């Protein structure tokens, strides 16, 4: 069993958290805890686990999305300290999940709008059904040892995340596969990697789950020296001091914080409410940026009909805010894709 703690498609299929409504309630700094978790383990009765887990989350006012599949569990939740602990205790009461690991980071506000437990075919979708991270996976590398590994000139360093995540931040020297979803990673491997040429391949992702499958995939293809950042970027940013870091930029996260920096402090990025892409303050100064309507990423991709709908939606949101009300919204949340 492989356990370590744990979030896109074409621009208009990408559904990250909707941030335009602001915090759900006033919150003191570090009042909330975000807990990212995953575990690959055989859950034959995963359908039966959904409702009891959802009931516990609702009872304790914990929000976020958890995915259940025959291959395990994956997701991120957010709530007060004691409430998050209650959900984790519920999970660990199942002998198959008693050692499920998780990674925590603080949030000044509730990071999610909704509470969801979904049943899936895969807990992270790669679309390759003949690999099993419970049996075959790459070599785990602790955060403290990561710099030494990726500084080796013989190591090929690959960012297994999606293109927009890479643009926000990555490790120095990392290769960008330029994927829109994790499903495209096997095609990248087929076109660009050679087991006879690439003797050492190191991979990383946000929390580690995508690398469980990417390293298992390479191992099954016959690659020998395959390495995996244990706990992902989040663990690295938590444990490695910025002065010694080889990380450049910020790390995209799949909640309302948008990005985090070293020490897992909230980053500087905002989000376009039309296409849900992360945007910088500089991009918000662009003439192509209109709050709730468009940004430089999507300005030339949206139709006149979409622009009109987004504009009217933003107008209604602002009117609702002026009345001190919340506007009805989709609040869709995702985990790594």
TrEMBL record:
<comment type="function">
    <text>Catalyzes oxygen-dependent 5-hydroxyuridine (ho5U) modification at position 34 in tRNAs.</text>
</comment>
<dbReference type="GO" id="GO:0006400">
    <property type="term" value="P:tRNA modification"/>
</dbReference>
<dbReference type="Pfam" id="PF17773">
    <property type="entry name" value="UPF0176_N"/>
</dbReference>
<dbReference type="Pfam" id="PF00581">
    <property type="entry name" value="Rhodanese"/>
</dbReference>
<dbReference type="InterPro" id="IPR040503">
    <property type="entry name" value="TRHO_N"/>
</dbReference>
<dbReference type="GO" id="GO:0016705">
    <property type="term" value="F:oxidoreductase activity, acting on paired donors, with incorporation or reduction of molecular oxygen"/>
</dbReference>
<keyword id="KW-0560">Oxidoreductase</keyword>
<dbReference type="InterPro" id="IPR036873">
    <property type="entry name" value="Rhodanese-like_dom_sf"/>
</dbReference>
<comment type="similarity">
    <text>Belongs to the TrhO family.</text>
</comment>
<dbReference type="InterPro" id="IPR020936">
    <property type="entry name" value="TrhO"/>
</dbReference>
<keyword id="KW-0819">tRNA processing</keyword>
<feature type="domain" description="Rhodanese">
    <location>
        <begin position="151"/>
        <end position="245"/>
    </location>
</feature>
<protein>
    <recommendedName>
        <fullName>tRNA uridine(34) hydroxylase</fullName>
        <ecNumber>1.14.-.-</ecNumber>
    </recommendedName>
</protein>
<dbReference type="InterPro" id="IPR001763">
    <property type="entry name" value="Rhodanese-like_dom"/>
</dbReference>
């Amino acid at each position: 069993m492989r356990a370590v703690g744990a979030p896109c498609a074409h621009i208009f299929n990408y559904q990250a958290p909707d941030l335009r409504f602001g915090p759900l309630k006033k919150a003191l700094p570090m009042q909330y805890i975000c807990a990212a978790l995953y575990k690959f383990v055989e859950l034959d009765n995963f359908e039966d686990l959904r409702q009891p887990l959802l009931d516990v989350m609702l009872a304790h006012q914990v929000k976020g999305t958890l995915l259940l599949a025959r291959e395990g569990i994956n997701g991120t939740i957010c709530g007060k300290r004691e409430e998050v602990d209650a959900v984790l205790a519920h999970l660990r009461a199942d002998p198959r999940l008693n050692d499920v690991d998780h990674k925590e980071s603080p949030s000044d506000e509730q990071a999610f709008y909704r509470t969801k437990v979904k049943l899936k075919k895969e807990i992270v979708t790669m679309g390759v059904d003949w690999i099993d991270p419970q049996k075959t996976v790459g070599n785990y590398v602790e955060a403290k040892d990561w710099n030494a590994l990726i500084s080796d000139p013989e190591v090929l360093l690959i960012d297994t995340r999606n293109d927009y995540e890479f643009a926000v931040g990555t490790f120095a020297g990392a290769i960008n596969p330029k994927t829109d979803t994790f499903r495209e990673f096997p095609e990248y491997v087929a076109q660009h990697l050679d087991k006879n040429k690439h003797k050492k391949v190191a991979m990383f992702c946000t929390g580690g789950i995508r690398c469980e499958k990417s390293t298992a995939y390479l191992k099954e293809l016959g690659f020998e020296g395959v390495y995996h950042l244990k706990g992902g970027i989040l663990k690295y940013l938590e444990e490695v001091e910025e002065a010694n870091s080889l990380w450049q930029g910020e790390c995209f996260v799949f909640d309302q914080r948008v990005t985090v920096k070293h020490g897992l402090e909230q980053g500087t990025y905002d989000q376009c409410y039309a296409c849900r892409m992360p945007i910088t303050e500089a991009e918000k100064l662009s003439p192509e940026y209109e709050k709730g309507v468009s940004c430089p990423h999507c300005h030339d991709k949206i139709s006149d009909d979409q622009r009109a709908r987004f504009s009217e939606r933003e107008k209604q949101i602002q009117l609702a805010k002026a009345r001190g009300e919340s506007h009805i919204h989709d609040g869709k949340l995702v985990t790594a894709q």
